[in-house]
Amino acid sequence: MNEWDATSYAGKDTILRVVAEEAERLFALAEAEEAWEAPTACPGWTTRDVVAHIVDTTEGYFAGFDAARGGALPEGAYGLPGMGARVNEQAVALRGIPQKELLDRLKADFERMRAILRELGEDEWAGLTVPHYYMGPLPAYFYAAGQLMDYAVHSWDIRQGTGRAHGLSGEAADLLVPFMFVLWQSTIRREADLTPFELGIRVGGVNGGDFHVSVGADGMAYREGSLVGLPAVIEFDAGSMVLTTFGRSNAGTVRGDLAIADRYLNLFFRI
User: Fold this and answer.
1) Tell me, what's a Pfam family for it (predicted)?
2) Do 25 and 132 fall into the same domain?
3) Which residue in 235, 250, 246, 252 sits closest to 269, CA to CA?
4) Which domain holds residue 50?
């Protein structure tokens, strides 16, 4: 049993605890009157827009679980390439809602989502398929990770906007590491050069390790394994990997062929 593996039921209580802690941090950041219109790391967004985005995202999760419970899974998905433009439209559409009203709505949405995730049984955690508006059918546990991305990464965005030095929670980063490989697989640029190559990714933290990455015509594949003989290895701590994958920073230590590492890091569009 691995309580830090959020894809397994053994990790359910851990990730729900960390999501709650990150949510409380974001609520506290957003409640200050002067923070509401303050800039964040998201271009064109203030704290108000970050809150609106998480409201929109979470309420989309409700629709997905309703569809899953009703047995009516929609065909297709919007896709990640157009996600940035659409989430901006959705967030901006909520700009007229007063601060307290929107924050109260976010808190109510958080409690409702937490209840949905708490009620998932062992068979449902990985066995219930829930349609995601942008990514299509996903296992239910992904929505706990989605909430952690929403609250941990966007709390980072709000703090970044203040200009103060800060970092990403180690527990949040450790839990998110496995999902970053999936996010990389899902965000390869349509115009990317997929001429085959290989490299290694070394990640710190409890879900870290050595990962052999292959890129080719079918996209990106990864597995844990030896990095011996690979032309390049990129080393990340857990937080740096998460922030790099989400496009919040350009981090990592490259050992070996810089051109191979550069090619890999520029395969992806950022969300």
Assistant:
1) MDMPI_N
2) yes
3) 246
4) 9-166
